[in-house]
Amino acid sequence: MALLEVNDLHTSFYTPAGEVKAVNGVSFNLDHGKVLGIVGESGSGKSVTAYSIMQILEKTGKIVSGSIKYDGQELVGAGEKVMKTVRGNKISIIFQDPMTSLNPTYTIGHQLMEAIVLHTNRNKKQARERAVEMLRLVNINEPEKRMNQYPFEFSGGMRQRIMIAMALACEPDILIADEPTTALDVTIQAQILELMQSLQKELGMAIIMITHDLGVVAQMCDEVIVMYAGSICEQGTADEIFYNPKHEYTKGLMRSIPTVDSEGKKLQPITGTPIDLLNMPAGCPFAPRCDAAMKICLRERCQRMQINDDHQAACWMNVKEAMENSPEGGEEA
Amino acid sequence: MSDNQYLVEVKHLKEYFNINTGIFSSKPLKAVDDVSFSIRRGETLGLVGESGCGKTTVGRTLLHLYKPTDGEIWFDGKKIETKKDILEYRKKSAMVFQDPYSSLNPRMTVSDIIAEPLDVHKMYKDKKERQERILDLMAKVGLNSEHANRYAHEFSGGQRQRIGIARALSMNPEFVVCDEPVSALDVSIQAQVINMFDELQEEMGLTYLFIAHDLLVVRHISDRIAVMYLGKMVELADAAEIYDHPLHPYTKSLMSAVPLPDPKKARENKRIVLSGDIPSPLNAPSGCPFRTRCPYATDACAESMPEFKELSSGHFVACHNVDKIN
């Protein structure tokens, strides 16, 4: 049994303009100690997937259907009481913007201890010790002194370290990192990624890394999910996704990023603009922008198919190949 | 100046901002401190560095959006001094801003936004000519001419950036400062805009100062690259040279910190992770600003700022210990 099993998750936002299907049938498993990357552009539903797992959606958002199982326990519809024992304790999240995710009116120590007292049965003194220990773990100098300082006294990189310390204080099994380094500079990003990697090895937790930066994914992740317009186009090991992409969108993404070798050459961008989630087409959501689109792509959405043991993709281009590999998947499509 | 190879020359540029530290006291923030470089006609000079290093200030001061505290700016062999010079210079130069959301006036239609520089400088005879010019510009940046009377909020980020570029090109400039023009865009849209910059450069013979923090993007688009740290320029060289043979310890760590979109290379990549954070420019360290994070720092680094000198042809670096390190 996988640590986290997400099955056919649908999450919608109900706006005055209509229902926005932000997550549209997402399924994946996460095992102990693995790093899973979710990549996609803005509006692809990668963050909403994470917020659905934590059930911290905005009021207009709702999990419509599907199941999220943590360690065999169903979380969808489990109620706030259960979620409170999961959030922070079992699954933690860190956000993109370390500037706004800390409360400016409380000291760092207060905020760290609050999380520890709430989730464990430590008393205040023990919580303080734990907080200092956590700050030391994320390489903050003079942690005792730092405990009494306010967020504005810390730089962006240090605030993100504090967020990581807070998220890991209760030793969660899963850490969800929602664009943890997007707001940071390159050298600081390198520090944070290095820290996350070493902590992951030390504590053996699983990480869901949500990002738009393929570089970060290549560096951090064992497995990768590529999302477009609320659904998963492709999923596989990092090597499979980068060296053997099987969905036209992933291929397009790989072609459109500048690399060391692309100098002097033209990039090959994906044409057109991202899809309007209010008016989803019947077929493959990427079809309107896809150079290789066929008639069936506009008519019918392709199901995810097994390419090999480590790789799945939802693209009609692979139908033949997939049929040979797994006749069941082919028929379903 | 007879040497017309260079379109823009900057000599010992300084830009200090006065920051109030108390009711009666203030302190200069040295955003740009003694920076010199030149940009050849038709080339793209990339300017990279982390937040707070002064790269945006260089771009803005270069266009006289900020009055330089000290130093000289030469354009096309002519020193920019008087108000008249500045006005003439502004007709030949333009800027594309980072944020396509806040840099377009929400109350103006696309055609008014694009034509605003033309209106300011009175560059057309009649309304018909103005309209023709607008449609021409919109076609150039790949915008549908039917959208001329829409407002900016009706467009996506990538399209807004196209509007910003059309506005920058409306005066037929020779020199364009691009301040992080693609960093707010999604990867697939980013590539469209980068290609457009390339094509426009070929078509109109533009010279770019391309400011960005995404090093892969900068390498892709630039001929030469300059690296800044805390208001000082620390290295300047050809794009390939600076990536393959960086000399300054800061550039070395910067280049190694770039996350490569290639799992095998990323695993092999030996990152030089710097300890500590960038010091505040208000309390910049004495001597070389990088010495507090530099693994090779010596006493000499605390005493004086190393000279920005040409080590090999076209490769400038400012480091006391450059020979020892390499």
Give a verbal description of the structure.
Chain A is of the alpha/beta class. Helices cover 35% and strands 23% of the residues of chain A. Chain A has helices at 46-54, 80-86, 108-119, 124-137, 143-146, 156-168, 186-203, 214-220, 238-243, 248-256, 295-299, 319-325, 327-332; strands spanning 4-15, 18-30, 35-39, 61-70, 73-74, 91-94, 174-178, 206-211, 223-228, 231-237, 305-308, 311-313. In chain A, the strands form two sheets. An eight-stranded mixed β-sheet of chain A has the order 6-7-8-3-9-10-12-11, sandwiched between helices. Chain A has a four-stranded antiparallel β-sheet with strand order 2-1-4-5. The longest helix of chain A is centred in the middle third of the chain and has 18 residues, at 186-203. Chain B is of the alpha/beta class and 326 residues long. Chain B has two domains: 1-34 and 43-213, P-loop containing nucleotide triphosphate hydrolases (Rossmann fold); 233-326, no CATH class. Chain B contains twelve helices and twelve strands. In chain B, the strands form two sheets. In chain B, strands 6-7-8-3-9-10-12-11 form an eight-stranded mixed β-sheet, sandwiched between helices. In chain B, helix 3 (110-121) runs parallel beside helix 5 (157-169). Chain B starts with 5 loop residues before the first strand and ends with a helix. Chain A binds chain B through residues 41-42, 155, 157-158, 185-191, 193-194, 212-219, 238-239, 242-243, 252-260, 262-263, 266-271, 273-274, and chain B through 50-51, 156, 158-159, 186-192, 194-195, 198, 213, 215-217, 219-221, 239-240, 243, 253-254, 256-267, 269, 271, 273-274, 277-278.
